[in-house]
Amino acid sequence: MWRWFHKLGSPKWFYAISGRWLPWVAVASILLLVVGTVWALLFAPADYQQGNSYRIIYIHVPAAFLAQSVYVMMAVAGAIGLIWKMKLADVMAKCCAPIGASFTFLALVTGAVWGKPTWGAWWVWDARLTSMLVLLFLYLGVVALQSAFTDRNQAARASALLSLVGLVNIPIIKYSVEWWNTLHQPASLTLTEKPAMPADMWVPLLIMVAGFYCFFTVVLLMRARVELLDRERRTGWVKDIIKAK
After folding, report:
1. Domain boundaries defined on the chain
2. Residues 104, 107, 108, 111: what is their CA dihedral angle, to the nearest 10 degrees?
3. Whole-model pTM?
4. Residue 47's beta-bridge partner residues?
5. Backbone phi, then psi, for 10, in 5-degree steps?
6. For 128-171, what is each residue's pLDDT tens digit?
7. Which tops the pLDDT comparison, 244 or 68?
8. pLDDT tens-digit profile of 219-234?
9. 51 bridge partner residues
10. Contact status, residue 87 vs residue 141, Cβ threshold 8 Å
């Protein structure tokens, strides 16, 4: 296991293996998103209370899931970079930040669009919404720290520390609807409870969640590969790739 862990930390090995993964993950992402979107828009029934406005859940929920998951991944990568000084971990942490910020922004915007017909307002200072807004600011803070230092190691350390401190916000987001009296509804999908929605509603939602995660993987691998080429441009293996092309 540890041998595999150290192997994963090799930029050359990661660049080679990610190049083989990319086409498969990209195809899976396209198929899942197309099937999920068609099912959600054309075949899933309207909600008995919210009508067709609930269909934005098929974008909002996957985006919200990823906003939190990407932050945890960024913080873990930052911790690995701090402890084991792995260059690839710093690369992954840096590449996660703008992607996670984009998904958080998408979750907030789609939540506002969903909230207008449901609550009668685009925005309320609800615990879930406010903690998601804090998450967006944390992402932007990490992005800013990455750009504030000319030394990459200093930038990686500073952004890793901020991302680790910001981890406290993740359980607040998750449990805010249980700890406080909020307008936001409980989680649509959980691992411990049967979905309240009928299968023809939650199955396409699961497909969309899987499609979003595959899409995130594609974008992350592409950004990481470009970042690695930039950082390792003076190494022999990068020069060999350039010559081959």
Report:
1. 20-44+55-186+197-244
2. -170
3. 0.93
4. 51
5. -85, 115
6. 999 999 999 999 999 999 999 999 999 999 999 999 999 999 99
7. 68
8. 999 999 999 999 999 9
9. 47
10. no
State both tokens at 182.
């909020």
164, 78 Cβ separation under 8 angstroms: yes
Distance CA 234, CA 232 (A): 5
Q: How many CA atoms lie within 13 A of 15 on its CB side?
A: 18
Q: What residues contact residue 133 under an 8 Å CB cut-off, 6+ apart? A: 108
Residue owning tokens 């906003």: 67
Q: What is the DSSP letter of 233?
A: T
Q: Is 130 left (phi over 0), alpha (psi -120 to 50) or beta?
A: alpha
Per residue in 86-140, pLDDT tens? 899 999 999 999 999 999 999 999 999 988 888 888 888 888 999 999 999 999 9
Tokens of 176: 């805010």
Q: For position 55, what pLDDT does the model report?
A: 94
Contact call for residues 118 and 53 (beta carbons, < 8 A): yes
| Residue in the block written with tokens 């595999």 | 4
H/E run at residue 172: helix 169-179
191 pLDDT band (50/70/90 cuts)?
A: low
Helix axes 57-84, 87-119, angle to 10 degrees: 150
Please say if the pLDDT value at position 1 is more than 60.
Answer: no
d(CA 96, CA 78): 10
